[in-house]
Design the sequence.
């Protein structure tokens, strides 16, 4: 079975990237004005764009794995296709960060002991347990996804599909319990794979709904209602707990955020083609930004740093908009002139034909 391509998800991917850029460009913004102060407060929601990425990735990867589970080259095709998509840009950026940026900013080179973690996707460990490290901090999320790609195909392959829902529930419960332990031990819950894995699991749960034909257009209004209710709940919790520093919030907030994006994805997958939502998500601008979203995410902190370093204008909005435009240009150049050279090899790593599990159906 061929998994159907859902163009609306490119729009969702673009929105997630734009949320993260908005967060990083404005979270520390200040010029003394009430407007900028308000924007910096709102920008905190942009950080949840990473959660949206996680939920979306969990869905997309799970539906691919389920649809190719019977392939003879299930593992080799999956891992090689992920490798040519992720590794080249990841390691190219590390080279830029560690060996080019110090020249441009006239700063010291980072010693190997502190950068070691990033070369092996282990940055979540020092960031969680307060060990010495130095590197592109936003790469923690790429480490989480890479770890998910390592073990999730194994579970999909060796566990019968009828048990998948139980496994997903177990992962969600495990992440919740680990956050309780981490908070009690004063460890970070934000960066560690197994304290954020429930968001990817929530995306996998969407794939289960797809298998069980629960993403039909008839369910659209129900998912819209649930999305609105979860958004209102999250907003109320944010207002009540803002600046409170409640430890329980560090445990439960990822559940509420992932639930919001779980229902958002369900809304998108059940919306009718030609609806206002579908048309919006399929706009050429959003689909284009979604196509280059990996580069947008990877390059934007460096662009922001260098823009502020070399451009003398201190206006908050000029710096943010200028950084955004430059990021889009660089991400576009990277995608077409660098990443595509490696994506070309995906055609050699196709899944072999074979009898596919009868439980898997494409959306639509």
Sequence:
């Amino acid at each position: 079975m061929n998994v159907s391509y859902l163009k609306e998800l490119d729009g969702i991917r673009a929105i997630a990237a734009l949320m993260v850029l908005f967060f990083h460009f404005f979270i520390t913004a200040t010029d003394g004005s009430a407007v900028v102060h308000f924007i910096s407060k709102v920008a905190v929601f942009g950080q949840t764009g990473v959660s949206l990425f996680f939920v979306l990735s969990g869905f997309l990867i799970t539906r691919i794995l389920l649809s190719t589970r019977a392939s003879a080259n299930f593992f080799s095709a999956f891992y090689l296709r992920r490798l040519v998509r992720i590794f080249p840009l990841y390691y190219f950026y590390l080279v830029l960060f560690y060996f080019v940026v110090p020249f441009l900013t006239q700063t010291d080179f980072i010693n190997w002991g502190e950068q070691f973690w990033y070369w092996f996707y282990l940055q979540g460990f020092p960031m969680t347990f307060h060990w010495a490290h130095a590197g592109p901090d936003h790469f923690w999320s790429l480490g989480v996804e890479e770890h998910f790609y390592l073990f999730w195909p194994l579970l999909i392959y060796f566990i019968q599909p009828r048990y998948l829902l139980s496994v997903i529930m177990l992962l969600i419960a495990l992440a919740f319990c680990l956050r309780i332990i981490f908070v009690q031990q004063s460890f970070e819950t934000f960066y560690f794979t197994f304290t954020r894995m429930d968001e990817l699991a929530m995306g996998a749960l969407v794939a289960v709904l797809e298998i069980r034909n629960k993403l039909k257009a008839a369910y659209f209004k129900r998912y819209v209602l649930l999305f609105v209710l979860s958004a209102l709940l999250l907003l109320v919790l944010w207002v009540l707990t803002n600046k409170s520093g409640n430890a329980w919030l560090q445990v439960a907030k990822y559940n509420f955020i992932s639930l919001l994006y779980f229902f958002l994805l369900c809304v998108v997958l059940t919306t009718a083609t030609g609806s206002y939502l579908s048309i919006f998500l399929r706009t050429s601008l959003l689909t284009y930004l979604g196509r280059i979203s990996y580069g947008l995410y990877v390059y934007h902190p460096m662009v922001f740093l260098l823009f502020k370093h070399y451009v003398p204008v201190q206006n908050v909005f000029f710096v943010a908009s200028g950084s955004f435009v430059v990021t889009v240009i660089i991400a576009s150049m990277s995608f077409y002139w660098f990443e595509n050279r490696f994506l070309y090899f995906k055609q050699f790593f196709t899944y072999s034909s074979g009898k596919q599990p009868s439980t898997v159906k494409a959306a639509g």
Notes: The chain has 15 helices and no strands. Residues 355-364 have pLDDT under 50 and may be disordered. The longest helix spans residues 74-105.
